[in-house]
Amino acid sequence: TQLLEQSPQFLSIQEGENLTVYCNSSSVFSSLQWYRQEPGEGPVLLVTVVTGGEVKKLKRLTFQFGDARKDSSLHITAAQPGDTGLYLCAYADGYSTLTFGKGTMLLVSP
Amino acid sequence: EAQVTQNPRYLITVTGKKLTVTCSQNMNHEYMSWYRQDPGLGLRQIYYSMNVEVTDKGDVPEGYKVSRKEKRNFPLILESPSPNQTSLYFCASRLTPDTQYFGPGTRLTVL
Which chain B residues in 77-106 lie under 8 Å from chain A, judged by CB atoms? Predict the structure, then answer.
């Protein structure tokens, strides 16, 4: 099983600030997924990045897949309290298993 | 509305008392899976099923059983629960590896 390391583990910021969270590995992935999990709910898929160097935008969220397909980042512009949650990256091992990083817990205060 | 449902959402039980957590999806997905989420350990896969009557172990299958008799249902069975199975459990289903829907979770406490 390939390891996904997410950093930071916890991030507490004020509304309006920008932030970046990271998902790193020593392995090469065919694709990586990003999820957000709000308290008391299941994870919700935000995006899948497939191509090395790919950048995808989802409103104020920008996802990037590293050129070597070993890492990914999520940048949030002008964070809002509604962005609070656990951000998880994951990779699919063929068609059978989905392996998650431990996540970054983001708290955005008004 | 496309969804994955789990029941119960909360359960407190005692060691050794058999229990079943149900999972159902309305998207006609062939693939379903179960995860547990624990502080400091993240989400770990327990079992998965590629189709009816086809199941396989994930990373942490010990102490759990599953069955897949119908495409829409994938129950998780704990024959003899122990305190180390206290956790937050999620069922999920998907059409392709790049699309996955999670249920709302079941918080289980084993005393």
Answer: 90, 92, 97-105
| Mean pLDDT, all residues of chain B | 95
CB spacing of A1 vs B59 below 8 angstroms: yes
Q: B90 vs A99: CB contact, 8 Å cut-off? A: no
What's the pLDDT band for A59 if we cut at 50, 70, 90?
A: very high
Q: Which residue has the tokens 């104020």?
A: A60
> How many C-alpha atoms does A7 have within 13 Å on its Cβ side?
4
Contact assignment for A95 to B92 by CB distance below 8 Å: no
Q: Higher confidence at residue A94 or residue A16?
A: A16
CA distance B48 to B30: 11
